[in-house]
Each structure stands twice: as C-alpha cells, then as structure tokens.
Amino acid sequence: MSDEINTRLGRIEGLMAGMDSKLDGISGRLDGQDARLRDVEVKASKNSFMTASVTSGVVAVGIAFFKDKLGI
Questions:
Q1: Which of 15, 44, 48, 67 could serve as 72's disulfide partner, Cβ 3.0–4.6 Å?
Q2: pTM higher than 0.85 for the full model?
Q3: pLDDT of 18-67, one tens digit each?
Q4: Closest by alpha carbon to 50, among 2, 4, 42, 21?
Q5: pLDDT in tens, 7-19
Q6: Which among 59, 58, 39 is positioned nearest to 47, based on CA atoms?
Q7: Buried b / exposed e across 30-57, counting CB within 10 Å, b at 16+?
Q8: How far lies 21's CA from each of 4, 10, 46, in Å?
C-alpha cells in the first residue's frame, strides 16, 4: 500500500512541476503581450491627439472662412 501511495504521490508531484513550468511560460507571454498593448495604447493616444489638433484647426479655418464670406 505504501509503495502505491508513494508512486501516485510521485506522479502528482511530476504533474505539478509540469504545470508550474507551463504557467511560467504563460506568464512570460502575458507580460510580452501587456508590453505590446501598452505600446499600441501610447501610439493610439498620440495619433488621436494629432488628429484632433488637425481637425480642430481645419474647422477653425473653415468657420473663419465662412464668417468672412458672410460678413459676420
């Protein structure tokens, strides 16, 4: 009985060690994806700022143009 328990315990320990190494790999990949996502968020924020700046400039010029044409 004791040998069977020791054998099963050894199998369980082996499975746990395998799961631990797989979790380490998943954690590393998740960290990499998090860094890439952060880079994308920064780029999106910069692009949004530039687009909003250009759009507001164009709208301001358009409003000024129409006011000038209408004599307001």
A1: 67
A2: no
A3: 898 888 889 889 999 999 999 999 999 999 999 999 999 999 999 999 99
A4: 42
A5: 999 999 989 988 9
A6: 39
A7: eeeeeeeeeeeeeeeeeeeeeeeeeeee
A8: 26, 17, 38
